[in-house]
Structures are given as structure tokens and as C-alpha cells.
Specification:
flat, Immunoglobulin-like, alpha+beta, seven-stranded mixed β-sheet, about 575 residues, about 40% strand, five-stranded antiparallel β-sheet
Length: about 575
């Protein structure tokens, strides 16, 4: 009974804590110059009535109140936030107070804690709390999240770049200004099919965010290593002071440069204690090692394949496999290296192998000795050594007609196997030769034909040469032919998928994007419709052709959700050929 009471009290306290009302005041800065401005936010986690702000007696209200509401569901839990924002200018120097704000929530009155702001003398470069640049910088953040800041040498870590955007502003477009160079790492970017906006929190406040990039890194040096920042240029829409006749705010567009900031990780060296001899730098988890042969019974001078393979999760592309050793009477060729490795957020996973071709020269039984492979296990944080099984190869006598070496008590002797009587049957003994015609070749019809024939090619060469010059001078015709050929090159895959709506429009959209990449040298992340229009018009493409191109992109988007007939797909294909040809002729 006592335990049941304690459990009931625990759940009651958890429920009360989960439903607790939060109403607080936050200032954008606690210290500012008398010629600067600041923003004060009053935030609540439940909707309320009769909001009453403080008097702001020591400040002048230069903007606000601005109201922002965020209501989202994250992992099945509802998250609500409502914020009133004011932009204030101090009236004097000194320590100024911002009093308590009040709100009524479900019949109860809640108050914020008073804030104290220190106002100093005027600064040379004031930051305006209501300035668009300042608002954009306060509500836009690029963050680099690192999975492990203290890894071992050659242990995989992940860097995820997230762009956080406050509900107070909107982002219309962005482009990369500078990519980080991972000079001390082996790196690989993880392919992201499309960007997806999600809800989350940044420093305790509700934000929207999008994952821009995921990169897997394997540190190649020990000590403190620097991870360079990713830098973006972002077009931000910031609400201004002006309103339309319906009371809606006008937005001002600001180009803001944001960076993820330098990050430092401390890479630990692999321990020297217990390091096996022949360790080649393999680091991973649950690695498996094997040596196999495709056959163990064969004739002398025949070949077999022996494979040395490692499977599992680790730095598979960054270490060497142990070499295979065979008896001296076996001929060994250089191995063929193969890998089947996928890279995800956990690092490399798959298998690598060396395949050796072996040719035994003598009859007998020959062992392929066991091999050892050592790696550092990240789970156990210790070295592990794996050993393969010995393989016994049973070699029979060589086929007839081939030399073999047999061994006995008197030593090895070379014997010639008896040859079969028809071993040269592939050689033709009847040549079927015919006598040469006794008539002289000189002066014969064939002689004069071969003599005159080259002279006939001269006028043909002149004719085709002039025609080629005429075609080279036809600039417009060449451009048209080149444009048509280019259009069909990019649209060949879409043509093959005519009749399959999903595959056709995916191929068509990919063809249009690839054409823009090749023609305008832009990336997929830069392919907003406004940016495409601006670039094409700037290259001299007519507005009608640009509209047709953008209309095609819209058709590809809508076709995923609406039915499309074969006739409609054929029309869109013909339209794409025409539009790409027109753009190529005009650019």
C-alpha cells in the first residue's frame, strides 16, 4: 500500500510539473549604449488574456508590440509558445529597470521577474534592436553538431549542419559561400535526397530548422584538430514597421551571412599497450576476417582463387589487408582489390577483399597457412586479433602433355606425360594452294582501275570541303543543331520512361536540373524559381521562354499528385525539347 501511494504521488507531481505555466521576460542585451536599442520579449507557454506590459518609464517604445505564436507537435508532445516583443530606446544613462508584465491564464494572474538594464555612454557603432540586420542576426543561426568531440584516431564522427530560423522571420533562399576543407580528416558527404523543415528548439525557444549537410569524418592526426565552418548567404524576410490597410506588416528582405563557427575536437591516439605486431591501422566494431578458396582439389597447372576478406563496420578504406603466403611450388599473382562499402551516419560499413590467383606447379598436398588480422575494437577499447583457418590444397597430376614434378624418396624428377596422337589436330595439313595467273598485272584492267580511282576522289573531296565550310559559316544553323542534340541528350532517360508517370516526371525534372547545372553552373540548392528566372533573363533568354521552362518545372511537381495521360506526357516531353533548344540558342 505504501508503494502504491508513493507511485501515485510521483505521477501527480509529474503531471503538475508538466502542466506548469511559464511566463518570463527576456532582453536581447543587458548592457547597451544610450544611443542603442534593445528588444524585450515576454514569452508564455500557454495562451492567456489581458496581457499588461510594464510602463517602460525609463525607455521610449520605438516598436511593438509584435506578436508571434508557435504551436507544434514534437514526438507526440504539444509545444506552445506565445511572445510579445517590444523595441526600446533608453532615455538616460545608468541602471534602468523594466517592471513586471502581467497575464491572466485560466483565471490566475502571472507576473514576470523585473529586468535590470545597464545603459552606458554612447557607442561608436550602435546596434539597433529594431534594425533589420540586427533582427535577422538574432533570429537566424547556423549550427554544426558533432557526434563525438573526443574520438580515437581513425574513429568515425559525424558533423551535421543545421540552419535554425525563428518564427519571427522567413527565409526565402540561401546559397553556400564557403565549404569547410577537412584537411586533417578523411571525409565523405552523405547524399541528402531533399531538404525537410522540422520543428525544434534553439536555446530554449521554439525554432524551425533544416538539416543542410551531413558529413562523416575519420581523423588522421591526433591532438586538437579544427573543423572549419560552413558559411551561407541567406535571404531573410524581416517584418518592418509599415502595415497595409488590413493591418498586415510589410516584410523587408535582408541578405545575411551566417557561419557555423569553428569547432575543435581532441583526437586520442590508439594505445601502445597491447598493440599487435603487424597492426595496419584498422579501427572498427565487430570486424570479421576470413580466408577462403574457391576449390581445394585441382590438377597441377590449373588455377584457383583465394580471397582474403574483412567485413563489418570501421575505417574499411583506410587500412591494408594482410598479404597471403603460399608454398614456393605455387605461383601467386598480384591480388585484385575489391570493396563494397556504404557510408552512413555511423561510418563505413561493408566489406573489402584481395583475391589472389594461385597456380600449383606440382602434384601433392599444399597448405595455405593461417593468416592473422588485428584491429582496435571501439566497443572494448582494446586490440583484437582474428586468425583464419589453414586451407589444404590437394593437387593431382597435370593433364596429358604437360610437364609435372613428382617427388619420391630419390628426390624430385621431371617427367613428360605421354602425348595423345591427335594433339596437333588443329593444324590444317591441306593448304589448297592455287597457281598464280600468268597474265601480267601491269596494263591490266585492274591496274588501270586502281590507278584512276584515286583521281576521282579529288573532286569529291573539293565538293565536301566546300559544303563543310558552308556549314561552319552557318552559325545559326549550327546552334540549332547543337541545341537539339543537347536537349535530346538530357531528355533521353525521360523518353525511355514515357508511359510510366512517376519515373517519367522524375527523369524530366532531373534532366531540367542537370541542364541548368551544366549551362548556368549552379547547384541544386540554388534552384529556386526566382533565382532561375533572374539568371536566365540575365543571360539574354526571352521572358516567354523562361516562363515556359518554369511552367515545365511546375508540371513535374504537380504530376506527382495528379493523374497524367500518355498524351500529356508526350506533350510535356516535346515542350521540354523545344524549351531547352530555345534556351541553348539564346544563351
Amino acid at each position: 500500500m505504501k508503494n502504491k501511494i508513493l507511485i501515485f504521488i510521483f505521477f501527480m507531481v509529474s503531471a503538475i510539473a508538466g502542466a506548469q505555466v511559464q511566463f518570463e521576460a527576456k532582453a536581447s542585451k543587458k548592457k547597451l549604449g544610450v544611443n542603442e536599442r534593445l528588444r524585450v520579449d515576454f514569452t508564455m507557454n500557454q495562451d492567456g488574456d489581458n496581457f499588461n506590459p510594464p510602463s517602460f518609464s525609463d525607455f521610449t517604445v520605438v516598436g511593438g508590440p509584435n506578436q508571434a505564436v508557435s504551436n507544434s507537435w514534437i514526438n507526440g508532445k504539444r509545444s506552445y509558445s506565445k511572445t510579445y516583443s517590444y523595441f526600446l530606446a533608453p532615455k538616460k544613462r545608468g541602471k534602468l529597470a523594466i517592471g513586471q508584465a502581467e497575464i491572466t491564464i485560466e483565471g490566475d494572474v502571472y507576473k514576470t521577474t523585473p529586468l535590470e538594464i545597464e545603459v552606458t555612454a554612447a557607442v561608436d557603432e550602435p546596434t539597433d534592436g529594431n534594425n533589420s540586420e540586427y533582427v535577422a542576426s538574432e533570429n537566424l543561426h547556423l549550427v554544426a553538431e558533432i557526434s563525438n568531440s573526443n574520438p580515437y584516431l581513425n574513429e568515425a564522427i559525424t558533423v551535421v549542419y543545421k540552419l535554425y530560423v525563428s518564427p519571427r522571420i522567413n527565409v526565402s533562399d540561401w546559397r553556400q559561400l564557403d565549404n569547410p576543407k577537412f584537411s586533417d580528416f578523411w571525409s565523405q558527404n552523405i547524399d541528402m535526397q531533399r531538404l525537410q523543415v522540422e520543428n525544434g528548439e534553439y536555446e530554449g525557444e521554439p525554432y524551425r530548422y533544416v538539416v543542410l549537410r551531413k558529413t562523416v569524418l575519420y581523423p588522421q592526426k591526433t591532438g586538437k584538430l579544427n573543423i572549419e565552418p560552413l558559411t551561407l548567404s541567406v535571404s531573410v524576410e524581416v517584418p518592418g514597421d509599415r502595415r497595409d490597410i488590413f493591418g498586415n506588416r510589410f516584410y523587408e528582405t535582408v541578405d545575411k551571412v551566417v557561419a557555423a563557427g569553428n569547432r575543435t575536437i581532441n583526437v586520442k591516439p590508439l594505445p601502445q599497450e597491447g598493440k599487435p605486431e603487424g597492426f595496419t591501422g584498422a579501427v572498427g566494431k565487430n570486424l570479421r576476417f576470413s580466408v577462403t578458396a574457391d576449390k581445394t582439389n585441382l590438377n597441377a597447372t590449373e588455377s584457383l582463387q583465394a580471397k582474403v576478406e574483412v567485413r563489418g563496420e570501421g575505417n574499411l578504406k583506410l587500412f591494408d589487408l594482410p598479404p597471403l603466403t603460399v608454398p614456393a611450388s605455387m605461383e601467386k599473382y598480384e591480388p585484385e582489390y575489391a570493396e563494397d562499402v556504404n557510408t552512413n551516419l555511423g561510418g563505413m560499413r561493408g566489406n573489402i577483399s584481395n583475391t589472389y590467383t594461385l597456380v600449383p606447379q606440382q602434384k601433392g598436398k599444399y597448405p595455405i597457412p593461417a593468416l592473422s588480422f588485428s584491429y582496435f575494437d571501439l566497443n572494448a577499447e582494446s586490440y583484437k586479433t582474428l586468425t583464419s583457418n589453414e586451407i589444404l590444397i590437394d593437387v593431382n597430376a597435370a593433364p596429358a602433355g604437360q610437364a609435372t614434378t613428382t617427388s619420391g624418396s630419390t628426390g624430385g624428377t621431371v617427367r613428360q606425360a605421354p602425348a595423345v596422337t591427335n594433339q596437333f589436330r588443329y593444324i590444317k595439313l591441306n593448304a589448297a594452294l592455287r597457281p598464280i595467273d600468268e597474265k601480267p598485272f601491269l596494263g591490266s584492267p585492274l591496274f588501270w582501275s586502281l590507278f584512276v580511282l584515286p583521281l576521282l576522289f579529288i573532286p569529291l573531296a573539293i565538293f565536301f570541303g566546300k559544303r563543310r565550310e558552308a556549314m561552319a559559316g552557318d552559325v545559326r544553323g549550327n546552334r540549332i543543331r547543337k541545341a537539339d542534340k543537347l536537349a535530346r541528350k538530357y531528355l533521353s532517360e525521360a523518353k525511355r520512361n514515357l508511359g510510366d508517370k512517376t519515373k517519367f516526371y522524375d527523369s524530366l525534372e532531373r534532366a531540367l536540373h542537370n541542364y541548368l547545372k551544366a549551362k548556368l553552373h549552379i547547384q541544386t540548392s540554388e534552384m529556386s524559381k526566382e533565382h532561375i528566372r533572374e539568371l536566365l533573363l540575365g543571360r539574354g533568354v526571352t521572358e516567354a521562354t523562361v516562363d515556359q521552362f518554369l511552367e515545365l518545372l511546375k508540371s513535374c511537381e504537380f504530376a506527382r499528385y495528379t493523374p497524367a495521360s500518355n498524351v500529356a506526357m508526350q506533350q510535356d516531353y516535346d515542350k521540354a525539347v523545344h524549351v531547352i533548344s530555345e534556351i541553348d540558342k539564346q544563351v
